[in-house]
Amino acid sequence: MPASVRNDFGRKLEHWIDSGVWPAGGLLPTREELTAIFGASELEHAHEVLDGLHRRGILTTRPDDGRMVIGVRGSAHDSSALAATQGGTEPDEERWQLVSETRRALVTQAARLAATRATDESLAKLSSLLPCETGDDGDDDASLSEAATREDGSGPTEGDFEREVVVASGNDLMLRIYDRLMVVEAATQGEEPLPVTAAGRIQFARRELLRAIAAHQPKAAALLADRIP
Fold first, then answer.
1. Distances from the Cα of 20 to the Cα of 17, 121, 221, angstroms
2. Checking CA distances to 10, which of 39, 50, 114, 179 falls within 20 to 30 Å?
3. pLDDT tens string 130-159
4. Which element (helix H / strand E) includes 185?
5. How many whole angstroms separate alpha carbon 201 and alpha carbon 165?
């Protein structure tokens, strides 16, 4: 397994651990369970990645039980790093913050439902709203505009992916509330554009959310959705 592939798989595992899917003190899923989530190709040389997490103190081995999670320390993709990318300082910042938190809470619950209700069509739609996975931060950031372009020359707007998660939940009331929250949030947030580096991290978090939805992992989907601004 090339080093870049190993590092990317390790990054994914760290993100899931740091999001609370596999909290400190709990056990990492079995190899079979990890394969069901990440695919056989990722797990081909998983022992190299897991050994690396052991050396870094993120995992430990508990006799007769398996690998126990200790936790991620100093993760580059923690919630504070993502939350810091939200909006700017405006007269309505307090209201914007409240609306934003409400929208995120709604998406979290929608992701939980989507993990049990998403169809092949909705999964394909969600996938189409994300850039191609490259395993390299720089390439991922550079590919945002190219991968997001539609046939008519336009691209998805910020929030399209999260809206499609709500659509995949199959709850029409949630969708109406989400659309209204987006209108209010847009009217109150700052004008400062999202930094490209932050956008790359958010796309990574979105890809992992899609992975959880496709793997029918409701709890994981909800926790991963909560990491997206």
1. 5, 29, 11
2. 114
3. 987 655 444 444 444 444 444 444 455 667
4. helix 172-188
5. 18
Q: What is the pLDDT of residues 103-118, one digit of tens each?
A: 999 999 999 999 999 9
Neighbouring residues of 124: CB distance < 8 A, sequence distance ≥ 6: none
Collapsing DSSP to helix, strand or coil, 62 comes out as strand
Can you tell me whether residue 87 is helix, strand or coil?
A: coil
3-state SS class at 97: helix
Q: In this structure, what token pair is assigned to residue 225?
A: 């959705």
Strand, helix or coil for residue 39: coil
- Phi, psi (deg, nearest 5) at residue 59: -125, 155
Torsion angle defined by CA atoms of residues 144, 149, 155 and 156, in that order, rounded to the nearest 10 degrees: -60
Rounded to 5°, angle at Cα 112 from 131 and 49: 55
pTM of the entire predicted model: 0.74
Provide the b/e sequence for 98-116 (b: ≥16 CB within 10 Å).
Answer: ebbeebbebbbbbbbbbbe
Q: Is the dihedral of CA 11, 13, 14, 16 positive or negative?
A: positive
Q: How far is Cα 147 from Cα 171, in angstroms, rounded to an integer?
A: 28
For residue 220, the surrounding DSSP H or E stretch is: helix 218-225
- Secondary structure (DSSP) of 140-165: HHHTHHHHT--TTS--PPTTHHHHHH
Eight-class DSSP state of 27 = B
